[in-house]
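Figure S7 source data.
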Amino acid sequence: MAGLDSNQSKPLWLLAELTYRCPLQCPYCSNPVEIAKYNDELATGDWLRVMQQARKMGATQLGFSGGEPLVRRDLEELITEARRLGYYTNLITSGVGMDEARVKAFKEAGLDHIQISFQASNEELNNYLGGTRSFQHKRDMARVVKELEYPMVLNIVLHRKNVDQIRDILDMTVALNADYVELASTQYYGWSRVNIDQLLPTRAQLTEAEKVAREYQEKMKGKMKIIYVIPDYFENRPKACMNGWGSIFLTIAPDGSALPCHAAAQLPGLEFPNVKDHGIEQIWNDSVAFNKFRGFDWMQEPCRSCPEKEKDFGGCRCQAYMLTGDATNADPVCDKSFHHQQLHDNVDRIGKLSGTTEFESKPLLFRNMKNSKALM
Amino acid sequence: MTSDIPEIAPTFRFQWEEAQDCYVILYPEGMVKLSQSAGEIMKRCDGEKDTSEIISELKTTFPGVDLETDVRNFLENARNNGWIRFKSK
Ligand code: SF4
Ligand code: SF4
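Tokens for the predicted iron/sulfur cluster complex:
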């Protein structure tokens, strides 16, 4: 699919990050740490135009996410237009800011699917990690979502503080009648990168978690689909990030900047075009940013001459940048990368310290505007 | 099962995609592109016609093709995938 030039690739997936405002404060949030910078959100009319233009280019899946998309009062209006345009519309939410009336209104507006995230399977940890008392409300909302016959995805981000409860978590998703369960391993960018010492699981934890996940996959076959992926820091080959840069994914940040991946804003020296200034077609086909890592010409060794480059496109550009300082390097997850050992050593360092009282008692940095300002 | 009526399950969406030039099945964060024949069958799973009616309709549209087994197999698969469900008359 990737390696295609811009004329052949299409933005099949449009991710609309409507806002970075969020009533929760998850310390693993994948939003940029600079959330406080994004005060200037796109207006309703801008979003309608973006949706129309992307649909014309072939976009089929549309995700409303954030931050917390429910914060936007125009969400109903955006869903209505999305449905009229023929999108399959996904709402990716914490459930906070939802009530039964609103879930019904979304249904009438034509929303196709709701994904609710849980921080954990017990009230105390859930509320601690989210920084709000949201657990009971999330459960109530999950029930309403199912009553209204939406397909429901429950998403739980796994890390060292909750991965041992994977069995409880899965029991909860079974009890709530989820159609799909995403056990998402924390990806270490944005806030989770700041908190990596507190969040990275140990190998022993992952071995156990995988065993339980497989057991439930088998048990729930045909009833509930469980997606479990081990964190890539523990792998020897990188993920085919975004299915290739500028290949099928288009993210629009709250301020209107268009990104080939929701973490790309951090990459230096790249100017991401804004939908207030340019149309989607121009952005997708002609912008420097979207062409930057298309195809294979930008690669260095070991990727450049690697027979596997068409499979993983050298991994994640953001991860390459974060861990090596150069976005054109191989993703250090790959054991052919010259920086793999360094990543490995860091994983081992955290693994050795995990469980010690001193290390575990270090505080998490919660994702909120105040902390964002302090980090900027 | 012959008297049963297939319909698209509420947790899936079936539609024509201009950009793909084919019928597709849409579900949370995913899409399956259908072959022409699969699309022709799914199109007729409208919650009104039963399996036999769908088969005879297809026979009229595509005369000379022996499609009965294929259609039944496809519907069985579609049901296993959760795309359709059967309701009784
Ligand atoms: S991960 Fe948590 S803090 Fe971040 S947007 Fe989602 S709910 Fe809000
Ligand atoms: S060297 Fe590059 S292209 Fe080859 S497997 Fe590793 S990351 Fe992928």
